[in-house]
Amino acid sequence: MNESDTAAWGAVLIILVMFLLPIIWIVALYPAEPYHAVGGEPLRDAAQAAGIKVVSATDSTWPVAGATGGKTYTLSNENGNLYTVQSQSFDSAGSRDAAIQLYNAQSVGRGRPVGKLFIIGNHLVYVTPYTSEILKRIAPELQKLKTT
Amino acid sequence: MSEDSVSSKKTGPAPQKLLGIFALAMINVAAVLSIRNFPSMAMYGWECIGWYIIGTILFLIPLSLAGAELATMLADKGGGVYAWCKEAFGEKGGFIAIFCEWSNNLVWFPTVLAFIASTLAFAISPELGSNPIYLFVVMMIAFWGTTAIAYFGENVSSKFQNYGVILGSIIPSILIIGLGVYWVVSGGAIVLPPFSLSEIVPTFDLSTLPFFATVILLFAGMEMAGFHALETRNPSTDYPKAMAISAVIIFFCTVMATLSIAFVIPADQLNLAAGVMQAIEYFFTALGIPGAIAPMAVLITIGGVVSLAAWLIGPALGLGVVAQEGNMPPLFNRTNKYGSPVAVLFIQALIGTFISLLYVFLPSVNQAYWILSAMTVELLCIVYLLVFAALIKLRYSKPDAPRPFKIPGGMAGIWLIGGMGAFGVVFAFIVGLMPTGDFSSSEAVSYVAGVLLGTFLLAVPPLIFLKMKKPSWIETSIKEG
């Protein structure tokens, strides 16, 4: 291997490291969410703790493997604005994670998903859009449920 | 291989002029027309028409016209967006543009591969969709299989895309449209409210900003045919026609098929869980033809593979041209007897495989993937911003260069078209930096800094390559086979 080849391979190595660095960094920064049973209705609990009114809740089961049921909630803030938020429980970590992968794989065009999935143990909470004011308010309460 | 053993400046055989209007148009259709968009868009009911019109005005039309002008002006230069941006901003600008397009693909590949695998699972057994081993095996077969098709050059890959896009994208779209028409004609209940012009006007507020940004990039990929300029028979006449044909097919199929789904499936059924196959299942069951679900799954899988092929081959060809021009180490400069950039394809496949491994086997990396997908949006916006900027700049720096297709309206026309496109992608870039609502203020700052830093790291390798560039790189030619 001559000097030029060494430089070329060095360049390739640098590029690979630079390329993979952000990917590995992000994956390390945001580790896997543990799967554990969370009883009751975490979304209702979080909404009520955040002072948000639950206007209605209807049963719904997402048509994905391993979904064991959940609810679609209509929430209302102090100004009377209505938000639809969903929650679904899963029978295993695998089925929960597969649902996340399916969701990420269905994003429109080359953009990123417009909604956000929030993991609470065996539940997925879905809020759209990801900038939603309601998500800002219930997220801290959902975060607390993760640790209880 | 030692430098002394190399004599020629160019690598591989001269490209064959294989592609005509139809083949070029199908490359764009393969890259852009995606059935997986339809259910998500159908949720918006009549309003989806307004959103599609916005995407068309702010992106589809500007990019199609920009591509037509730049590709015909630079018909003798390979590399697509690389050649266009290089002509305007020099090697650095061109290299950054093509590298951003290539690197954003690498993070996007796992999602389209997962889509292919989960859609195919519907034809076999839907439960397979949650089996990571199944997912990974199918993803790798699709990924390396498509890479193998690219290996055999333009002749094989263009035939694959021509047949594949008809089978996997156009026929399923027409089928959905036809069944929607049948539903209406046969007296099926239309779940949408009665049509009025006010119904199609989109709602603009803070809550629709993310969707607005998504819609702008809905038609990303219209530049894909430009990567095949050197293989085009009559680029100056064929390219603009191909752009027009592909834009019409994409717009017609997208709008009509989305409306067909919106007519039949209530919006509350088109929720998060409504992946395309779940929507198709509902659609076909409502129409009384559940037996058509599995064959449709196979067709849509083919459409996913063809879309993957378009995005996998085009930017790799562009990066291959960069390597041939001596801007990358000779390692990247390998082409085979079919004229395919095998080194780029192989490195691309290796990195894509690694990221796919993370995607499938690292459990619930929800937040991580979210941030990575934000970076891919930013990278794509950089590409398109450079393209629109190149369009405008070249009218000033090379006003007299022959342009077989010229955007009408003189400088006002070019500023209008380029300006609309640039506005759209800058807007999408800014929205791409918006953190999700669950971040605290300090997390939000970290998020924005992280996305910008990550985007920088994924975009900056060209600057390192150019810094390290040696005269010997351009002289080295490695020909395989």
Characteristic key phrases:
heterodimer; A: 148 residues; alpha+beta; Phosphorylase Kinase, domain 1; 2 domains; 5 strands; elongated; B: 481 residues; mainly alpha; Amino acid/polyamine transporter I; 16 helices; 2 strands; 69% helix; globular; disordered N terminus
Fold and architecture overview:
A five-stranded antiparallel β-sheet of chain A has the order 1-2-3-5-4. In chain A, helix 2 (42-49) crosses helix 4 (133-147). The longest helix of chain A is centred in the N-terminal third of the chain and has 27 residues, at 3-29. Chain A is 43% helix and 25% strand. In chain A, a hairpin with a 6-residue loop joins strand 1 (53-60) and strand 2 (67-76). Chain A is α+β, with helices and mostly antiparallel strands and 148 residues long. Chain A has helices spanning 3-29, 42-49, 93-105, 133-147, and strands at residues 53-60, 67-76, 82-90, 116-120, 123-127. Chain A contains four helices and five strands. Chain A has two domains: 1-31; 42-147, Phosphorylase Kinase, domain 1 (2-Layer Sandwich). The longest helix of chain B is centred in the first third of the chain and has 44 residues, at 81-124. Chain B has 16 helices and two strands.
Fold topology:
The complex is a heterodimer of chains A (148) and B (481).
Chain A: H1 3-29, H2 42-49, E1 53-60, E2 67-76, E3 82-90, H3 93-105, E4 116-120, E5 123-127, H4 133-147
Antiparallel strand pairs in A: 1-2, 2-3, 3-5, 4-5
Helix pairs in contact in A: 2-4
Chain B: H1 21-32, H2 37-42, H3 47-73, H4 81-124, H5 132-151, H6 153-185, H7 209-216, H8 235-264, H9 276-286, H10 293-324, E1 334-335, H11 342-361, H12 366-397, H13 410-432, H14 441-459, H15 461-468, H16 471-475, E2 478-479
Parallel strand pairs in B: 1-2
Helix pairs in contact in B: 1-6, 1-8, 1-10, 3-8, 3-12, 3-13, 4-5, 4-10, 4-11, 4-12, 4-15, 5-10, 5-11, 6-8, 6-10, 7-13, 10-11, 12-13, 12-14
